[in-house]
Amino acid sequence: MNFENSRSFARMMDKNDSLKSYREKFYYPKNGNNKNVIYFCGNSLGLQPKSVRKYVEKELYVWERDGVIGQHGRWEHFHERLMDNTARLVGAKPSEVVVMNALTVNIHLLLVSFYQPNQKRNKVIIEKGTFPSDQYAIQSQIKFHGFDPTTSLIELSPRKSEKTLRTQDVLDTVSEFNEEISTIILGGVNYYTGQAFDMKSITDSGHQVGAYVGFDLAHAAGNLKMSLHDWNVDFAAWCSYKYLCAGAGAPSGIFIHKTHHDWSGPRFAGWWGHNKNTRFEMESDFDPIQTAEGWQISNAPIMGMVPLLAAMEIFDEAGMDAIRLKSEKLTGLLEFLITANLPEVSIITPENPLERGCQLSLVAPGGEKTFENISKEGVICDWRKPDVIRIAPHPLFNRYIEVYDFVKLLQKSLSE
């Protein structure tokens, strides 16, 4: 698309935006003067859908009215209401997904099954600079099995003077270590650089050497259009409070490919993963559900799931095709305006739209001071050490004019 360096062009894009009405479905923050801020933090915490309150109050009323009776026939199967729309979101079959727990908890639970090291095959491949919680979890899993992260953890680094990984370098590393690799687990989108990985190619290469391949989709779910089933990804997990707008601490989703549903290997079992027909017979032998639900441990956090249900209905209505299309236009306009107006600002996120989500990571003169200055001007984004300002508009509630105004505010800050 050909962009123009003018406010009128941004307004024209807003006028023609097929998703423009969705902004009204969210509460939008204001500053102390009751003016809208520029909220570019969709990759950290999405805004609250206006429908959430009604959804939560409905379940509070059921609890008030029925007490424990609400569990039978309603809450017992509540998580199932999220299976079809979650499957559509990540390109899966409904039997391959379930919402449960928190993200890092789920990563641990998945690695119990999909990291099975031995003396020959014990290495895990991650990207260097992955989100710290993932690194902690993976290192602790390696140690739990009696191996040393200094020898069993392979961290992928960009080439010298480059900021992001080349897909071919990932594939070459997989080929190099071959049968030493037990598991590959990368972020679908790197939280720091905003780089989106070629999940299909990485999965194919991992399977060629006999490794399990999984992804942390915290910054990809609701951001990228994915086909986890068709890509033959073994496992994945994601949170729902970022692009998915389900609220602080909202529960996580997992994906387990259907080829693993008759799983006989290791896993941590709990009663909510037990055969639904006999779950309440309280049998002592675990009889797992033959779907991703078999990895459940505890019953669903209803009050945490309700906001996600409200948000997922919005995503389902808008559709990931339209969301992704606007995402590319938002980041495209942002990239164009920065390049045209701020040559002193560098963008470390890949230029290719296929290699990024709705985020650009900027390195600007002044670093954290510049971030503080634009924050005072009403821009809500975030700072990540050592030198990155992350700008993440959201296709469902951000406007193109906000992209234009942000660049002008950044330009003003840098000129002072």
Structure notes:
The longest helix has 22 residues, at 320-341. This protein has two domains: 7-36 and 319-415, Aspartate Aminotransferase, domain 1 (Alpha-Beta Complex), CATH 3.90.1150.10; 55-316, Aspartate Aminotransferase, domain 2. It contains twelve helices and 13 strands. A hairpin with a 3-residue loop joins β12 and β13. α1 (7-15) packs antiparallel against α12 (400-415) and α3 (83-90) packs across α9 (302-318). With 416 residues, it is of the alpha/beta class. The strands form three sheets. It has a seven-stranded mixed sheet, with helices on both faces. Strands 9-10-13-12 form a four-stranded antiparallel sheet, with helices on one face. A two-stranded parallel ribbon has the order 1-11.
Brief rundown of the structure:
By secondary structure, the chain is α/β, with parallel strands linked by helices. The chain contains twelve helices and 13 strands. 35% of the residues lie in helices and 12% in strands.
Give descriptors for this structure.
alpha/beta, 35% helix, four-stranded antiparallel beta sheet, 416 residues, Aspartate Aminotransferase, domain 1, Aspartate Aminotransferase, domain 2
